[in-house]
Amino acid sequence: MEDGGVSERDIDRRRGGGWGCLKAALALILILAAIGAGFWYLGDRIRGSFMGGPDPVTVAQSSLQGLREQNRLTTFSGSYVAVVTSKQTRLGLTAQKTMIMPGTVRYEVDLSKLSDRDLTWDPATRKLTLVLPPIEVIGPEVNIDGIRSYGNGGILMTFTDAEQLLDDANRKAGQEELLRQARSPMYMRLARQATRRAVENSFLMPLRAVGVQATVEVKFLDEVGKPTERWDESRRPEDVLSNRW
Q: Tens digits of per-residue pLDDT, 155-170?
């Protein structure tokens, strides 16, 4: 009906237009709500990251991976001198030689054997504990130029192979003696302590760099279940070695 008034079609059009505006407004509200929720979630994650601080376990695992990539760690070495004597007796004659053999031995840890199971974190005490493989004594590296030999029994050494046999025996015995000295309890303690310090620092420095206050304890596999060795730390290992003679 078009009786100078508003037709039913116009009324329907206006009703449809009003409903369309309402739907657009609702859609806009939902979009803004979704955007707001997204920003709130992102802000909460960022705030939680800064308020909670860095994860000590993540930092420690990164340090552990760095250690493994080094493969083998040498933190200590010692110089020793072996004095050995061998004898040969033939046809009533005796030949004897004494050898003075200097050599160097390295103390290493095979870091490639480390696994995540060797690393533990106690959040209550904020203590990080790492169990290392046993220390290996590598060598000796004999100082050939420093070897000195003294002997007697010239007749037997001149006409037989006694001198060669004596030298071979002394070289073997000298290397065994160098290793025996290197494996003595005192020098093994020095090597353990030097290794502990190096490994502890490799974990403490990254933790402190990100603001994590923690203590680090390094043990060796053969010490697990035993009290950790503690000894006079006021002297450096190299100072003790320099006064051993």
A: 888 888 999 999 999 9
Parent domain of 103:
56-242
Whether 139 and 203 share a structural domain:
yes
**Do 39 and 79 belong to one domain?**
no
Per the structure, the count of domains in the chain is 2
Q: How far apart are CA 17 and CA 205, in angstroms?
A: 68
- Indicate whether 170 and 201 sit together in one domain: yes
Q: How many helices, marked H, and strands, marked E, lie in the chain?
A: 6, 7
Q: Is there a single domain that holds both residue 72 and residue 136? A: yes
The answer to whether residues 72 and 6 belong to one domain is: no
User: Around 50, how many Cα atoms within 13 Å sit in the side-chain half-sphere?
Assistant: 5
Q: What pTM does this model have?
A: 0.67
Residues 45 and 65 both lie in one domain: no
CA distances for 20 relative to 88, 116, 132, angstroms: 115, 61, 72
For residue 105, the model assigns a pLDDT of 97
CA 139 to chain centre: 22
| 3-state SS, residue 105 | strand
Going from the C-alpha of 107 to that of each of 76, 123, 176, 179, the distances in angstroms are 5, 33, 16, 11
Residue 207 in 3-state DSSP? helix
Spatial contact of 136 and 73, defined as CB atoms under 8 Å apart:
no
